[in-house]
Amino acid sequence: MMPGTISAQITDYAHRADPYPLYAELREQPVRREDDGTYLVSTYYEVRSLANDPRLSNDTSNRATGYARPGQPVEAGLPPSFIFTDPPAHDRLRDTINRPFGPPHSPRFLDGLRADLAKAVTELLDAFDGKDRVDIVEDFSYPLPVTAICKVLGVPREDEPRFHAWANALASSIDPHPGDDGGPEKAGRARQEMGAYLAGLIETKRRHPGPGMLSALAPDMTPADLEATAVLLLVAGHETTVNAITNTTLTLLRHPDVLQRFQKDPELAVPLIEEVLRYEPPVQFVPWTTALADIEIAGTTIPQGSPVWLMLAAANRDPQRFKDPDRFDPDRKDNEHLGFYTGIHYCFGAPLARMELHLAVPELFHRVTFSGLLEDPPPYRANAVLRGPRHLPVAIEGLTA
Question: Which of 99, 120, 284, 379 places its Cα 20 to 30 Å from the Cα of 38?
Fold first, then answer.
């Protein structure tokens, strides 16, 4: 990435609080070649087309020599996670992993977690009692998804302090410009250490099966594939949902008219949450795809072996697809956003994330009386891909039972 290019500006922390003017500039040229040979695709129909095009690979080993390979930590000793593979390996792994997670094999798995997660929401909000300020990230939107993914996998919740640092390092590995937060070497060590931790847990579950996906998958996957999958799900299973809950909270506090409607009409929750996923998606762009052949799109040829960034957040505000796209509008019709991506790599955990959002957000705004944001914009995470507030300090007036 070369200084002064628009990709460098997008990953520059100075633009983290509001990258949308840069995305608007980017859309003026739907497919843009950067000086280092990376192609940025920013308009809705082009992003959607390429995300469903088998000539675009998620395996960064297909990149021409000399290009960075985000998401592939070095010296990790594990095979790639399934999101960094292509068919047929991707389909085989994803089909196997889905069996204990959802339909048709396990249609009631997620619903069986609902009561426990609702209880977790209640307990987190109960802890607000007597306070006049809270940090939504630290006190609510981080602990809930961690609790959820631990229950899904069968990982002890009390081990969170062990995997927290590993998760941060691994999340930074998908950022094309991680800065001081990490790099491939740090992420490789984290993946190796987390893999070793999970290998021990998986071996215990092979001998003594219990609730959760690790026990269910142990008989059907090789140890290496299951370790790589467990690392991915443990990290991705909470990182994006933290952003989604936090972004929803921030957006509602910035739009008091919508918040007032929502508090009077809980049925607004479904379109409201989908609109936040369009307006402030938890994953801003996908920088790890590669052209497997020369691809002609929007009057530009992307050469074989070239890195391709699919700019989801830019596509979600494309005026050719969404009317008045910079307006937050929960009444928006036909809101087929790319907040959870599209195609064969559509977010595996989207049903879980949506369930958490629908448990957390209505209860948060039903029980808590907010005085307002204490910092706007709030401090953001360094990660340009997984963009979201690092902290969201708010003033509160009270808590209802």
Answer: 379
